[in-house]
Amino acid sequence: MYKHINSLTSLRGIAALVVVIHHFSYYTLPKTGATLSTYSSFFHNGYLWVDFFFILSGFIMTHVYARDFSAKLTSDNYRSYLLSRFARIYPLHIFILALFVGLEILKTFLIHHSAFTGKFNLTALFANVFLLQAFDLNCPPLFWCNTYWNEPAWSISVEFVIYCVFPFLLFFLLRNNYKHDLLMYVSSLLGILLLVTLTRGNLDSIIGVPAIARCGLECVLGIITYKVYRRGHYQKYFNLNLLAIIAITWIMLIMHNYWHYWRSLHDWLILPGFSLLILAVSVNNKGMISKFLNSQPMLYLGTRSYSVYLVHWFIQDVIKFSWVYRFNGIFGQSFTRLENFLALGVFLMITLLVASLTYKFVEVPMRHYLKSKLLLTNINE
């Protein structure tokens, strides 16, 4: 049985919150984003925390499944693993998708909106139901696909693809010695830089089919980071609190600045910082950073991070629709600076409240239900 690493749960919550603020401030209420950017580009660069998710996912899944797939890879343990992953991500995804369908129907009655058109077309709905929303081959050149009913759910699609190949990656990479690990880590980093440079020049634009490579390569970074964590030799030479401070400073400096030129290099440089942060906080100690990450409020946020991540875009759409229906105008168009920040605060509180409800009444019970049904069926077979 693996040991749960609480600090990483809290980091996942922080990452989800940064992504939520990024989406609200730069997509739903751009005036807020413009104000934030006058002080710092931290939230403008918030999309980079999706890449943190991918690296962290590789690390945590290795922590959970290393014992299962290090010695052998059988059809039974592969099937059990994949069913468990499906039960983890699918129920909440399909629930939020159903809410979007309901909202689309509501629009037709209240504002005479043409239902199931534009990005909310039936083909895209079909793709989302079957976790295929990252595979719209009609998007030249495979970017900016209009297949995402729930915008953040593009990552769910590509992650599930990587879930399918992860045991094979793990089986191969766990056999590498430390010299090969370094080579694999550097090769994956260079592969990401090449991917960014040859596509749209930043990680934010790598969605659709190329995002599979983005997710896969960053998952490899997470696997190698975990192998360093398991060896533990770095603890002899580095103070963990100092290592965490270096990682946080590294990440903050990159997040604070927005390079219009050398954009691909800017986004790429943060990735080793994410690995270093994960490595630094994975070992519990009595330092201030560990105490903060292991506090109850941070763990509460972390356990609900998946719900926060998936539900917030729907809440944004409800707000924009309600504003059009009630005031017949664009949400936030006439807001003052103070009203912009008040709107952000209210939005965050609503998101956390709704995410807490979906976590308690949808995500957890449906995950347990599916696992009990699917895994029991698998055993009986």
Q: Could you characterize the architecture of this molecule?
A:
- Residues 6-359 form the Acyltransferase domain.
- Keywords: Acyltransferase, Membrane, Transferase, Transmembrane, Transmembrane helix.
- This is Acyltransferase 3.
- One of its GO terms (molecular function) is acyltransferase activity, transferring groups other than amino-acyl groups.
- The structure is a single chain.
- The protein is mainly α and 381 residues long.
- It has one domain.
- The chain has 15 helices and no strands.
- It has helices spanning 6-28, 30-39, 48-70, 75-110, 122-129, 154-173, 178-198, 210-231, 234-237, 240-256, 263-281, 288-293, 296-303, 305-327, 337-380.
- Helix 1 packs across helix 13, helix 3 (48-70) packs across helix 8 and helix 4 packs parallel to helix 14 (305-327).
- The longest helix has 44 residues, at 337-380.
- It is globular.
Taking the sheet with the most strands, its summary is:
none
Continuous helix count:
15
- The averaged pLDDT comes out at 90
Question: Number of folding domains?
Answer: 1
Rg, rounded, reads 21 Å
Summarize this structure as a short list of keywords or feature phrases.
mainly alpha; 381 residues; 75% helix; 15 helices
Compact overview of the structure:
Keywords: Acyltransferase, Membrane, Transferase, Transmembrane, Transmembrane helix. It contains 15 helices and no strands. It has 381 residues and is mostly helical.
Give me the secondary-structure topology:
Elements: H1 6-28, H2 30-39, H3 48-70, H4 75-110, H5 122-129, H6 154-173, H7 178-198, H8 210-231, H9 234-237, H10 240-256, H11 263-281, H12 288-293, H13 296-303, H14 305-327, H15 337-380
